[in-house]
Automatic annotation (TrEMBL):
Keywords in alphabetical order: Membrane, Transmembrane, Transmembrane helix, Transport
PROSITE patterns: MFS (PS50850)
InterPro entries: MFS, MFS_dom, MFS_Exporter, MFS_trans_sf
Pfam (any one): MFS_1
Main location: membrane
Bilayer disposition of the protein: Multi-pass membrane protein
Transmembrane segments: 20-40, 52-71, 83-101, 142-165, 171-190, 210-235, 247-265, 277-294, 300-319, 339-358, 364-384
Keyword Transmembrane among record annotations: yes
Domain of life: Bacteria
Major facilitator superfamily (MFS) profile domain segment(s): 17-388
Matches recorded under Gene3D superfamilies: MFS general substrate transporter like domains
Name of this protein: MFS family permease
Length: 400
């Protein structure tokens, strides 16, 4: 008599606490997307020259980059729950501060403070989320978690511009502050000690702030996100030069494509590891940049947007899940801080580098030039896989 063995039921991803951290993260990212396209306009209302707008965006990113390594170390010692709550409270207060800004210098100082809290919140929230996922579904979980931030990109910028055009900057800042407060209120329901804490006497607590195991995926994500810095900054200007209307659709299509891809890519990662996702994603990004360089009409622009969304939606969650997979539980705060620092640096450096290239070569050649860092990411990944295969072969040969 043959007995049928039922396969084990995979643990549920959608726990109460995981749902809450996804919702809290969503409110934070809508806050961010509301302000991203509107603050350059606000600079003019406080008497700032056009060049100041770039600094208003730039100091925010630099502040987040500066705080992430330190907050990652604190998370691993004190816990991600406390860092998230305090970070969200300060995030709310800094957002509320825009209501009293009437000059450029105070605006820049507030942007630094807001960027610091952004670095704390996104690092802590990512760590909380990774600890609330079943290990066997971490790739899928990262895809779902990131999906909530992608949804904010679909309507956040358009909503922010609409509020400013139909109401006022004060209404915009009240809305953004309300979202920050909603994120804080949601996170309050998540248990404080959801993250494995390393004591000062444990080896994990005494390791460097940037872990060796995170270098590879973080280097790859930095190279990939150089392309996002270039695209986010210069696609609107490129489309204007080519006379292509309704550029905002590029970001909507890109965001929707990324949302559709993230869950699929996460499941593929869980089934077969990064090799089932990363090469395909990198190839799609190369295709997108090539399409951008050839763009002459809206159809081609939206094709490039879709390819880019599918590519980035495959690569980013896979690299983040791979980062977590390569690090022990007591160091996930450092791992997440390194990973998000690489993203921030990639976007910031990509924007600056793209500006230099545009002045020298023009838009089509600039987009093609950004294929080089994507190829660099592919070579890093290929080198790692080859090294792993050589180690495995040597182990097989040495075994009896």
């Amino acid at each position: 008599m043959h007995r049928t063995v039922e396969p084990p039921i995979p643990p549920s991803l959608w726990s109460r606490d995981f749902s809450l951290i996804c919702l809290s993260n969503f409110f934070v990212f809508v806050n961010f997307q509301l302000l991203l396209p509107t603050l350059p306009l606000f600079v003019h209302t406080v008497g700032g020259p056009e060049g100041t707008a770039g600094w208003v965006i730039g100091v925010f990113t630099l502040a987040a980059v500066a705080i992430r390594p330190w907050i990652g170390r604190i998370i691993d010692r004190k816990g991600s729950g406390k860092a998230l709550r305090w970070g969200l409270l300060l995030f709310f207060l800094s957002t509320l501060g825009y209501l009293w800004i009437e000059a450029v210098i105070p605006l820049l100082l507030l942007r630094i403070a807001h960027g610091l809290t952004w670095g704390v919140v996104t690092t802590a929230a990512g760590t909380v989320a990774s600890d609330l996922m079943p290990p066997s579904r971490r790739g899928e979980g990262m895809g779902v978690y990131g999906l909530f931030s992608n949804v904010s990109l679909v309507f956040g910028p358009a909503l922010g511009l609409w509020v400013v055009q139909t109401h006022s900057f004060s209404a915009l800042f009240y809305l953004a502050a309300g979202l920050a407060l909603a994120s804080f209120a949601t996170a309050k329901w998540i248990p404080l000690l959801s993250h494995p804490i390393a004591s000062d006497s444990e080896p994990a607590a005494n390791k460097p702030t940037i872990l060796a195991a995170t270098w590879l995926p973080s280097a790859m994500v930095l190279l990939v996100f150089l392309t996002l810095g270039a695209a986010a900054t210069y696609v609107p200007l490129f489309a204007m030069e080519r006379g292509i209307p309704h550029t905002g659709w590029f970001f909507t299509v890109y965001a929707v494509a990324m949302m559709l891809t993230r869950i699929w890519s996460g499941k593929q990662f869980d089934r077969g590891g990064p090799q089932r996702v990363i090469p395909i994603g990198l190839a799609l990004i190369v295709g997108s940049l090539t399409a951008l360089s050839l763009t002459r009409d809206p159809a081609m622009l939206l094709t490039a947007a879709a390819l880019y969304g599918f590519g980035l939606g495959s690569v980013q969650p896979a690299l983040q899940a791979w980062t977590i997979q390569r690090t022990p539980p007591g160091t996930r705060g450092k791992a997440n801080s390194t990973f998000f620092t690489a993203i921030d640096l990639g976007i910031g450096l990509g924007s600056i580098l793209a500006g230099i290239l545009v002045q020298q070569t023009g838009y089509p050649a600039m987009f093609l030039a950004f294929i080089i860092p994507v190829v660099g990411a592919a070579l890093l990944y290929a080198f790692t896989n080859r090294k792993k295969a050589l180690v495995s072969d040597r182990a097989d040969q040495s075994s009896p």
